[in-house]
Structure formats: structure tokens, C-alpha cells
Amino acid sequence: MEFLTTASGRRLAYDRVAGQGPGVVFLGGFRSDMTGTKAVWLQEWAQAQGRAFLRFDYSGHGASEGDFLQLGIGDWLADALEMVDRLTRGRQVLVGSSMGGWLALPVAQARPERVQGLVGIAAAPDFTMDAMEPGLTPARRAELAARGFYIEPSPYDPAGYPITRALLEQGARHLVLRSPLHLPFPVRLLHGTADRDVDVSVALRLLSHMTCPDARLILVKDADHRFSAVPNLELTASVIAELLACGS
Questions:
Q1: Are 23 and 50 in contact (CB under 8 A)?
Q2: Would residue 201 show up in a list of annotated catalytic residues for this protein?
Q3: Which of 23, 98, 132, 161 lies at a C-alpha separation of 20 to 30 Å from 51?
Q4: Could you give the CA distance from residue 226 to residue 164 in angstroms, rounded to a whole number?
Q5: Domains and CATH numbers, the chain
Q6: pTM exceeding the 0.90 threshold for the entire prediction
């Protein structure tokens, strides 16, 4: 594990494997970190292929610095852009899981010349507006006003997830499904039919919304949101390999 000090002054943790390009950059999900099953498995796969690979923790996640309660989508987007700009060379395949699938989209729009392709795993674009805002009861709005956050129960953490005012406000400023989304490189969306966190309709909406010369959605029967069973990981690797080979 190494650390990069960002323009904002926070130290972000990352792990990087040297190898041939194009490389692979993994963008994790909300409240997850770079020690997750997908990130580690894919790095080991890339290393076995002699392929450059980067995984990292956003501010306020994992081993990176930052107060999670004060951070949001805009901060994590800035983190991802700095990681790509400062720690990679040449073209990259961006692999975004859940929230990382949202962040990968504006990263790709900002740096299209650096993107070889994009893979969304259970991508969750605009989830703050489309999934969280509708659930804001008067009690939750009052808690946001008073404390700056409320606790959302989660099957992934017995303590629940803090949903903050910063997350919702920044999310509203970085929506990708309300404006043109031009992606001039291959895009692959992977989604499980048993995903209880991000409905398949989100993947269909994203596929329909984007302008892309080569975009495909792959549905996997009975796969859940984690998408981390070995067959799911092997499918992800094969899709990444396909994009790495494009144009070669």
C-alpha cells in the first residue's frame, strides 16, 4: 500500500501493479474499499497477465484520510481523476463497481483520450437522486438539517450507512442521466438479475441514455449486487480482456 497526497491535501491509499498497457483502473463502491473481493481478485488477474492495474480508496474510505461525513460524490470524483492523472500512463480500462460505475462515467467524459474502454459492474449512476431522495421522509429531512446525516440500514454493515447532506447535495451536482452522455469507446455493463440494491432497470436506462458506438449490457441470472462469485469475477475479467484487446 502506498499513499498519494491530493491537491486537497488528503492522503489517499492505493495499490498499483506495474505492467504493460493499456492498464486497468478499479473504482470501488460506496463505503467499500480497495481490499474488497473484486478489487483484489482483478488485481491478481491483471498481475498474472502482466497488465498494469490500479486500485485505491476514496477520501474517507478504507485507509485514506478524510471525514466521511463531510465528503460526497464531487470529492470522490476529484480523487478518481487525480489517481488516473498522476498514477497511470496511456490508455486505461475503467472498471467501476456500483457507485464506482457512476464515477467512471464523468471520469471518462473528462479524459476520453485516456480511456480504452469502460466496464460498469452493477453501476449505480445518480443513485443519490433516484434511490435516496425519494426515501427522504420528514423525519429524515429533519435529521439531515439538525445533524447533517441520518443512518440508513444496510445488509453490508450492522451499524448502517450514514447518508449525509454533503452526499446528497454533491450528488445533485454530478448527475449523468440528465444530460448528454457521450462515450466514444467500448462500454460493457454487467448486472445481476438478483441485484436487490440496484435494479436492472437502472442498467437499461443507462444503456439507452448513453451515446456510444459499442455498448452492451450483459445480464447474469441470479447474480447479486456484490457480483463477486467466481463465475462473475471470471466473466468480468473476460470482458476487461476483450476491451484491452480492442484496436490491437
A1: no
A2: no
A3: 98
A4: 23
A5: 2-126+176-245 (3.40.50.1820)
A6: yes
